[in-house]
Amino acid sequence: MESTLQDLDLSLMRLGAALRTFKKVTCATYITCKLPSEVAARGRRKAALSASNISRQKKPQQSQLPVEGSKTRQPRIREFNMSTIKLHGLGDYAETIREHGTTDNSSTQIGELAHRRVKRIFPVIQKSQFTLGIAKYEQRQRILQKMHQRAPKSSRKRRRSTVNTVDTPWLQFDDVEELPEGSPDQHHIIAMDVRHGITISEWLSEYKDDPAIKVSTTYAIINFLTH
After folding, report:
1. What average pLDDT does the structure give for the chain?
2. Secondary element (H or E) of residue 115
3. Long-range pairs, 157-165, Cβ under 8 A, ≥24
4. Using CA atoms, how far apart are residues 109 and 181, in angstroms rounded to an integer?
5. What letter would DSSP give residue 207?
6. Adjacent-strand bridge partners of 77
7. Residue among 202, 193, 192 at smallest CA distance from 169
């Protein structure tokens, strides 16, 4: 195993030297830019963001409206970046295997799941100070979790039983369930939140003798057959 790790060390050293030569010689000779498709996609994203910001204002001024063709977008120059965590970690592979064993003994699942959590938090924080926003979001989550753990178990069980049972298909006053915007002419509006869901089949079975259920079921069947 030691001879294999020595070969890995030498191979990584040769790879690092080749990358540095590529950075100094090849990258200095050529000017690389974004592809036209990437520039066009970036322009569409900026135009869509500008249009959404203007639509949120009550009375947009004429000067705030985007004018097509007013600015010529130049492709952004892209340089080869060696200051990445993947390249930086190559030099530690062999030593890590010596200390902790082969790579199949470890997993990156924890880091990947943490990365997914940060991606879910990112849309709801301020983009100019995203590090501070993520930290505050995590702090609020921990406070709420501690409050939940300190609450008596009896009250938590009672609260679950009053919300999630079939006999009470409604929410408590402290439970917020946001609904999407809709017109008064719509028959019903379904919330996107699935925390307080009920099973329709169980609910219909529980209230099968209710006259309102019978009338609505009959109306649904007639409407389905006549359309």
Report:
1. 76
2. helix 109-121
3. 163/196, 164/196, 164/198
4. 38
5. T
6. 33
7. 202
Find out whether 177 and 163 touch, Cβ atoms under 8 Å: no
180-198: pLDDT as tens digits: 777 878 777 777 777 667 7
Q: Is the pLDDT of residue 60 over 70?
A: no
Q: Which tokens go with 141?
A: 């989550």
Name residue 105's amino acid.
N
- Other C-beta atoms within 10 Å of 113: how many? 9
Rg (CA), the chain: 29
Question: Whats the size of the chain, residue-wise?
Answer: 227
Angle at CA 125, nearest 5°, toward 122 and 127?
Answer: 80
CB 30 within 8 A of CB 24: no
How far apart are the C-alpha atoms of 29 and 22, rounded to whole Å?
10
Q: Which residues contact 35 (CB under 8 A, 6 or more apart)?
A: 75
Q: Which residue has the tokens 């209710």?
A: 210
> Which 3 state secondary structure label does DSSP give 33?
strand
Q: Record the pTM.
A: 0.39
Q: Please report, to the nearest 10 degrees, the dihedral formed by the alpha carbons of residues 130, 134, 135, 138 taken in order.
A: 170
Task: Count CB-CB contacts under 10 A for residue 156.
Answer: 12
Classify 77 as helix, strand or coil: strand
Residue 95 has pLDDT above 80, yes or no: yes
Mapped onto helix, strand or coil, the DSSP state of residue 142 is helix
